[in-house]
Please model this.
Amino acid sequence: MPDVFDGTFLAFAITAVLFAGISKGGFGSGAAFAATPLLALILEPGAAIGLMLPLLMLMDITALRPYWRRWDGASALALIVGAAPGILLAALLYKVANPDFFRVLIGLIALGFVAFQLARARGLIPPAAQPMGQKAGGFWGMIAGFTSFISHAGGPPAAVFLLSRDLDKLRFQATTVLVFWAINLMKFLPYAMLGIFTPQSLLADLYLAPFAVIGIWVGVRLHRLVPEQLFFALTYVFLVITGSKLIFDALT
Model:
């Protein structure tokens, strides 16, 4: 990781943290993971995810309070229990794979997110005919745990399950907040054991923490002022560019 006061690092890191905070604040929810591909352009993938996790946990705590006990407990439990083996699998893979492998994975997840969202918006992915059961929730939770460990990108797999459960907007958002609060807590110990956190990354987190809170504050207010479609359009372009660049860098 470069010096905390390095100009390039600060430009990328502050932008990434503000973006994640704005998304976690309720504006463009589900796109917060786009911060990881941005950071992975200037950092090793492990350094990028290690830098973001404490900040995402801070955002989770901030977002959890207004949604307290408004979630769907059964749906949340299925995803959280299923996430555990997904996190374990990703941790085992992290021990043996090289950084370029993870650059490709992060890039593919970024491009996959765009493809999933566009397909859903155009009706190419029809809504589930009936609510998925707990076993299906465990499966999608496992996928969410794996992708969340790799690049903090568990939102789309979790959404596939939750969208089938016929939840209203409030319960959907509250369940998502609870699930990723729990998943991020579960990721903390494996990250620490694998040496993903460093004294320098934790120092950087201290400097970046105010921007995480500012991002959430801005996200709450932008939700009322700016069309969310514009935010998502910019997010898709950004993810296609960064995802493609990560894959190109890893393969060349």
Observations:
- The longest helix spans residues 199-225.
- The mean pLDDT is 86.
